[in-house]
Amino acid sequence: MTTESPSSNSHDKVSSGPSALTSLVCLFGFLIVVFVVGWAGGAVTATSVGDWYEGLAKPPLNPDRWIFPVAWNFLYFLMAISAWLVWRTAGSFDRAGGPLALFGMQLALNLSWSIVFFGLKNPVLAVATVLVLDIAIAITVMAFLKVDRLAGWLLLPYLGWTLFATYLTIGIALLN
Description:
This protein has helices at about 20-45, 65-90, 95-120, 125-145, 150-155, 155-175. The chain is an all-alpha fold.
């Protein structure tokens, strides 16, 4: 009778991570999810950006309207790549579950801000929503940094832009 150490069994070998095809499919999945949420927010925004929003008094540094979709599309791309990196580095959805759950929560809050601000036309409630979103993004950045440093860094422009959106939201709430 021979004895083998458990590490010599083939089923005990550590996986080298997801296959290239699986990784590519998941990348597209993250891109689709993030851009669908972005599309939904844009659809809500479109209901009142041309009339109600135009009539609001705005704080200094308010950018031209065309800047917002350009910035958000770039940020949504970075967000999707960031989430994909966390999944890929962790090696599975099970191991990346906590950080990706935080990511999903902040993504839902992102959409809820559009619903509250543009859909409900409620800048005061939007201030509360965006402040919670700021905190959620910061927590997500910290969680992502623990898994994949690049993933965390890729969320920093999103956090910066959202902090700028916080300034704009507070300004609009105070001026109107």
